[in-house]
User: Fold these one by one.
Assistant:
Number 1:
Amino acid sequence: MPVRTLRGFRDLLPNYLEDFRWVESRARAVFERAGYREVLTPTVEPFELYEEKEGEQIEESMFVFEDKAGRRVALRPEFTASLARLFAFMGGEFKLPVKWYYVGNVFRYDEPQRMRYREFWQAGAELMGASTPESDAEIMSLAWNTLRDVGLGEGALIRLNNVGIVKSMLEAWGVSGEMQSRVLTWMDKLGKVERSEVERGLAELLGEERGSRLMGLVDVEGEDPSELEPVLRGFEGSVEALKNLEEVYDAARAVGMRVRLTPFLVRGLAYYTGTVFEAFVEDIPYALGGGGRYDGLVAEYGGPPTPATGLSLGLDRIVDAVREKGVRVKRERSGVFVAVVSDDLRRRAFVLVESLRAAGIRADLDLRGGRSLSKQAEYADRTGWRYVIFLGPKEVERGVYVVKDLESWEQLEVPEGGLLDFLRAGLD
RNA sequence: GCCGGGGUGGGGCAGCCUGGCAGCCUGGGGGCCUGUGGAGCCCCAGACCCGGGUUCAAAUCCCGGCCCCGGCCCCA
């Protein structure tokens, strides 16, 4: 009975994982250089952790089930809620600001599509207890620098907005929770559907005048943020948010990021209160990462009121982009494969291999047995070994090893006592 | 939820319209090679998603089902 992976889940194979771990390590290095330290939270969380900050409909896109005690539990769909929860409980023990990062798998019950899986990998960071513009800019820089360090810096672009601008307008109009997120959803559609369609949608929700006022926001895409000012006249909170947007924008530009103001960018999450951003790379049609400021979340989980900002990177998508763009991680040959002329030397080869391994050198031999020397050499070549040692009666008798370098295709004799030094020199 | 494209050896495909011995590439095992030449030549193993129907005959035509991929919606 053949059994395969569940829909939307994948097996990750060595060639893929090699690239994946490389990207992951670059992200970790970026985070650590900025002073972030790793935390790990549970894969399974109480459903309420996610319920509180979104409507009920998010349950559809999550793995939710009952455990044996009848509790409603969920596979984590993201990390931010967990870290905010963690901070709410433990934050008092740490000097502020707290800087945490994570790497892990997350789960979403969506219909799988290109680069959309039901289990995928995120690396991200949260900065809690700081609200300066530089805090947001630093979080953005983590995305920017990761893309740069995996070779995607060329066409990288950060789209930036501040949801406080539009949220303040809506609040001034008395537009409430459910209605608010419907408005935001429409705005988010800009760039995906016809402008006139969005206009119609907003007018339906808010009326002609207010709708067109909102549309006035989007026209300054990419321009100087101060151009938004006239549009916002009369909305106190919006003006403040705009000022913050300008400062974050300037801070990000000051450290060399390519940033584009995108007033219709609102992101799906309801918990964002200020800065929001997404990271893109030219020719890749979806965001490789994103994040923003969520100043209310920690308090919602019972912690002290705490300003916070964070990001997450879609590792799978970045790996895909790296491959797509041909930045390609180079695979290097390594280690030693010991090939034997005849089966009766296998024990001797095994002893040699184990001693090499003990000395810290990657080594292997043909464990199938009964294979010609040419087959063993071919195997060593095709599976990426750097050296082949040909072990036969002649070598044993003379106390030497015949070592072939599969990179240069050169071959030479090394005396038994000199093997370790020779290999170490070559493999380093 | 809606709309497309597909299910044929391990992977990727052709064959289907026009029913008649199931083919190619790659990967796997082996030989040429009685001691290694990244190659070449040769050999071997391995498949028509499931269930009905039509037919002398079904991978091919018809009906039903299941599954996969992609697009839309959504996307924490």
Number 2:
Amino acid sequence: MHPPILEGNLAQPVIRRLNAMRQLSERGIALLQQAIQDGLHRARPGEDLATEGDPVDSVRIILSGWLCRYKTLADGRRQIVNFVLPGDSCDACVYLLSVMDHSIGALTPVTYADIKRPAFEQLLASDRSLEEALWCETMVSSAIQREWTVNIGRRVALERVAHLLCELYERLLPIGMIDGDSCLFPVTQMDLADATGLSVVHVNRTLQELRGSGLIVLRDRMLTINDLKLLKDTALFSADYLHTKRHG
Amino acid sequence: MHPPILEGNLAQPVIRRLNAMRQLSERGIALLQQAIQDGLHRARPGEDLATEGDPVDSVRIILSGWLCRYKTLADGRRQIVNFVLPGDSCDACVYLLSVMDHSIGALTPVTYADIKRPAFEQLLASDRSLEEALWCETMVSSAIQREWTVNIGRRVALERVAHLLCELYERLLPIGMIDGDSCLFPVTQMDLADATGLSVVHVNRTLQELRGSGLIVLRDRMLTINDLKLLKDTALFSADYLHTKRHG
DNA sequence: CGGTTAATTGACGTGAGTCAATCTCCGTGG
DNA sequence: CCACGGAGATTGACTCACGTCAATTAACCG
């Protein structure tokens, strides 16, 4: 059903991302690449990689594509709680808990590696740099989650949307997905609404305001940030919480 | 300055909490108790245990008292992103990142154990059950953070405040801090506002509504939940995300 | 060319914020 | 014993950012 997966080096974004956290050893990289090769999968847009309530027994590392983590209330209200980008891992450790407390849906076609728990534990145990890098990634993901709470709780709509765009820009940058000041942006206004806690209508108007000030161009799934500095100021954005800087 | 700390068994809430995640071994408990004894500290209400931007080099395990994690925007807006209760650990692993991305403030007098990184790593390495339990605790904390995003993003004020009360109730229960249907509740309306993304005035009115429906009594730092079932229904609350059930 | 999903607009309603005054505790000092 | 001050809780009046509803347009796809 799926075509064979044979692109040049699928593990590239993962390695770049983890390397930004901790210098990976040659050995660690090799082990990781092997594990990824052994568990390649694909998902289609709209497909759920995991659903709230599902048992968890493996870790997924995203190689290409965009996804989102989301939760749904009984009456249908939906909140996207995070985006998942290439190089991110889904639940590097949620498997310590038995059950998913949220769902993970693909926004685009997605390639990922599914690593079963035993293989994953072996991987962690076999290389220290890899273990630390993966834990770091998990910690950063928590930090992002905290910032989202702040974003939704204390920023007004314009700041809020601007902040989300800044975050995505900063996260796409280190994995080589920013071209100049532009990037693919496969997020519908409905997704943006569910991610920011706003209504679709208001997101639409907010985007128009950002466009109107010449800060961004967003059309045809392509985002261009004309004035990053000003966008960050608008959003009260500081990248510190992304912990991108390598540390000693 | 501080009186000596010699209460009966300070480590009790920690052990209860971790045991709810993973059955701790005798050995693990002993090691943990020793580590806690070696690093006892106190903090006073209003004091910050850590401040955004601080370097991190130790783990703090809370033995008694309430704290909150919070972030502040440049113009003073504040968002509490989580409460920290006895048995919780502060950043069991944020120390993998070099710098705090948020602050941690004491709401009440607090007793905690400060365990330096080397001692903490040794602790984790020496007992498997302890290591897993502490990672679980970290994962649950992430799950809570996600639920807060949903709470603030998609629930209306009444649901939102009710949800927070339900969560705190469920978290206080396993550490023995619920007496009947009541508990100490040292959280001001200003704190509640900063935790729910509402204004103080609106929190006040929302509490009155909850009181008016006979769901809760809240006065003199004492919270009584008269009708937990109904409060949960009001909040669209499900405790699943707290992953309290032990698993096999 | 229909059918669908996403984006956009306008009109209107409202939940929640802001401002500002008042009230209630408390602890402190004279 | 009481004036004073400060923190927290409470109220009322008013405002507005954002939501809802509903219709229209644009883009895409077989």
Number 3:
Amino acid sequence: MWDPWLSIRQHIVRELALRLGAHGYPESADALERQLDDAPSGVADFGYATHRAAKSVGTPPERLATELAADFPLGGGLARVTSEGAYVNFHADTPRLIESTLELVFARGPEYGRGPPRTEKVCVEHTSANPTGPFHVGRVRNGVIGDTMARILRAAGYPVTTEYYVDDMGRQSAMITWIWSMPVDQWPPEVREGARPPEGVSAATEKADHWYGRPYRSVSELLKKDPLAAQQVGELVRQVESGNSPARHREIGEAVLKGMLASLARIGIRFDEFVWESTLVQDGSVGRVIERLRKAPHATVEENGALALDARGYGLPKENATIVVTRGDGTSLYPTRDVAYHLQKFSRFARVIDVLGQDHQLHARTLVAMLTEVGEARRPEFLIYQDITVPEGGRMSTRKGKAVNLDDLLDEAVERAHAEVLKRREDLSEDQVTEIAQHVGAGAVRFHVLRIAPDKPVKFRWEEALSFEGRSGPFLQYSYARAASILRKASREAPPYPFEATALTTHEETELVRAIGRLPGTVAYVSRTSHVHTVATYAFGLAEAFNRFYQSVPVLRAEEPAKSSRLALVAATRQTLGNTLDLLGVERLERM
RNA sequence: GGGCGUGUGGCCUAGUCUGGAUAGGGCAUCGGGUUCCUAACCCGAGGGUCGGGGGUUCGAAUCCCCCCACGCCCGCCA
């Protein structure tokens, strides 16, 4: 037993199938499961629209609804069946629902919401940004979505590994090594000018991603008009590919990555594994992929010796009907190396999920075409999200100078949170205030990115990202803290929580129980659909239900048995909201 | 030009996969609520051609077709 709504749904669907069958309308329980709607709130728990069945049977829908409701068998947590117009309405046995929901929450504790264990190993690869400089806000959507998806899949019962694919082989990371391989005072003037650190900032005082990343944009500009510099960078790429990369290359890459990961850690994103692209070249996997592609059905060789694939027939855009596998000098390209990486992932995992920005959509299809060409039938599942754009238009880009640094956003969020905490709480120590502010700021930013469907483009606006009110991370944290506070004052911070289901009778109480009961279904839904934002929507609804309860129903000042029962309800809310916050990667706060 | 995605009150958004009851929320605006468990909260009000047009259906924000607008991609970059 892991979902308090499951038995009642199953009962309804099973009996409905039987009764509709008796009316001459055969429909499987599975099909009916999909047709069973949530009834409008206040009307009932579930509703079934009879129009379709009625039409097929030749009975007026209203009559069919009346007939079905009249002698529908109760039980399984179903207390009452009514009809309204063409709808059959199913009402749960509320005391029984309260009992099964709260008991389940207390029995499972931190495990509440999780599904039955599964054995298929899943890999969620996300973020995988080049180690060339600090994260901007546009990039973190990938990490937030990927990290949350991984948390949800774990909750759904899968063994999950998160991976960061570190691209240390491309031109972009070579650019950083190239510029830092010479003393700063010998840098080309335009680079030195463009990369000048602000007053008082040095390598010792600044995070490595910010420090090493500073010249990135200027170098990128320089390479467009300086063939000699471009040639030197190209030479470096060849060195890396042949395994003779300067030690500095890996050192800088690791330093920059470390700085980047520190930023992600601030919003709860961590990785299980890192796969450095260069290792795939050095262990020969990329070479083997190139050899297999050379013998592939549609392999061709371009005039300058570049190996390519004639990809017509793969549904790629016309101009892109050729996939280039190696450069003229024989060095590999990113899609080719990514094939090697995917073959490796397939050997380690049953399911491979790639979180990709929409700008990688074509890459995804290229990758699939190349996998076909090497005779690999397995496919990654792509979780595609739209970009975060800048209000003036266009997506964030460090190179174009249109980007907001994640660290800057977080610093600002934490600063504002600090001011808010100070305003509200005079009793806390400076350390407590600082800690709360960090989690509130981080929670606001992470939730802001998470609350919107991945399919939707997001326009970045400071005021929205920094909102602590309404549908926000801090609202959830505040709700959790309120629940924690009541339990603390009652000295009831741990089980057991005895309760009497019949003592919980107000609309606010029963709605809160219903919300608590919806977590397992939400987890199952998201693990199936990858609609990670649904967890954010759920969390908000739960917190809202709790705040309404809090407002209208006294707990500590109530008489028994209401008092104990309400304390149990508060404890169940704290557990459920806490488990949900864990899924969202938003820190729980016992006080704020 | 082709491919993918998006379009829901002033702004942001859920619902779209699997069609079903008066399209839910948040921000902003206006009006209320704290001698009482944390007002980062709660209650109420106004505000909607669900981008436009056709179609399918008993029924369309949801499915199909056409069109419009916006974003991204269409490198021997990643």
Number 4:
Amino acid sequence: MNDSFLRDCLFFTANRLGRTITKLAEEQFAPTGLTPMYGYLLLLVNGLPGITQKELAEKLSVTPSTLTRFVDKLEAKKLVERQVSGKSVQVFPTDKSRELEGTIRQASRNLHDAYAAVLGTESSDALSIDLLQASLELEKM
Amino acid sequence: MNDSFLRDCLFFTANRLGRTITKLAEEQFAPTGLTPMYGYLLLLVNGLPGITQKELAEKLSVTPSTLTRFVDKLEAKKLVERQVSGKSVQVFPTDKSRELEGTIRQASRNLHDAYAAVLGTESSDALSIDLLQASLELEKM
DNA sequence: CTATTTTGTTTGTACATACAAAATATAAAA
DNA sequence: TTTTATATTTTGTATGTACAAACAAAATAG
């Protein structure tokens, strides 16, 4: 039978890799007490205190509604603070999130090391760039 | 600030592309009345009548519990039938699903054409193969 | 041939994510 | 200055997906 779509279809292969690497990433991020997405969100907020939700949604390529939910959770954990500013909402780090910065960066490095050990450093880095490039082009459609 | 993880981290870039292409795929699959994942599941069942849920879960790289949910929905829509066989469950197509086969294959082609028009046929096909290869290797971990 | 283990499925629950519609707040126009 | 338009966020709701536990059937060991 013809099940070539299992390898030929970018929808399928991209989401498959997404599921696989999410699992690996969650393991590596366990010490942070956060899932990888929340960890990266915190890095952005720590690095750009006062960044708006709109900007965060764009950088992370999630919808504004999703971002609202993320910030709700981080706020509940006292990891960020909201400040309304005109029609935007700015997001600020807390002491607690600044303390987590190092742990998150370490988890991120561990994740990279883990998959690079399997896929090779060169090729996994190249793959990541190709993926970003592809999504940027498709988002323009 | 250092937000290089937005391009260097395979967790992030794979899932980003996954979100982007899922949206495109859902548009192209709209005429089938199914989301892409369900469409591909039906193609597998049509091509291998009596395939077990375990085999389907492996081919699609989702967990067995997820597959149960998928089959529940397709069964409710009269698009597949279950038949218990020992501790396994075999899944069979219905007339309705066989009628949909052509529509699904067309949607799949349209999806491929849509992203190939943006990314290039060669490079999008190569990317898809790289993605599958990467997930196969990471799933061995 | 019974007791234990393994394998496959289902169910309860939880989270990430999206879309559409509603709410909010500023900016622009009249 | 009141009205209208626009940008941002939030809320309601829905789907995909996972894990852990429960369950059922089969395989294996004693």
